[in-house]
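Hi V.,

Quick status before I head out on leave. The structure for the redesign project is tokenized and pasted below; the design run finished overnight.
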């Protein structure tokens, strides 16, 4: 049985990773660490960089050959009013709210360019990150995988692309 050390909690877990996430939006991560906290306000869920607003969300890809899903913990850039509405609902159930538009703020390995790709965000309960839906009409492979799910071969490719697993 394989295991991995979780970069978030530091514990060793059995099996293979079923998620990958970013600590910050790419544009903020690119700021030198010594200046980052001066130029941006952020925690593990929210980020403001000047007049840009970001929410950490979850983009799920269902597994086809095993239970559960692969989760991408991506940052989504949203409009200022949507950001503050999320802050307002942070400790409440926001799943009844209308979805909001945004764009992916991370380059996702194993895919054609995702940075700036349009998405829809649905707020969730206070214990779950907002869900991301990639519109199918843009024809991006990520949208197709979100609809059709991923098989074990594709799961392996994602693990290799994220550095969670060595190549074939």
């Amino acid at each position: 049985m394989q295991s991995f050390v979780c970069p978030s909690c530091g514990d060793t877990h059995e099996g293979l990773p079923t998620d990958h996430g970013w600590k910050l939006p790419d544009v903020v991560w690119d700021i030198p660490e010594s200046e980052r906290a001066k130029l941006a306000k952020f925690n593990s869920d929210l980020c403001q960089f000047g007049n840009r607003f970001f929410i950490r969300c979850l983009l799920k890809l269902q597994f086809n050959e095993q239970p559960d899903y692969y989760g991408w913990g991506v940052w989504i850039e949203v409009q200022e009013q949507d950001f503050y509405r999320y802050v307002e609902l942070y400790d409440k159930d926001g799943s009844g709210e209308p979805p909001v538009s945004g764009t992916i703020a991370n380059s996702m390995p194993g895919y054609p360019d995702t940075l700036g790709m349009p998405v829809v965000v649905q707020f969730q309960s206070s214990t779950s990150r907002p869900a991301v839906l990639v519109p199918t009409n843009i024809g991006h492979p990520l949208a197709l995988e979100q609809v059709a799910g991923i098989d074990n071969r594709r799961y392996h490719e994602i693990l290799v692309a994220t550095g969670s697993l060595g190549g074939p």
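Above is the designed sequence. Residues 52 and 150 are 33 Å apart (CA to CA).

G. will cover questions while I'm gone.

Best,
W.
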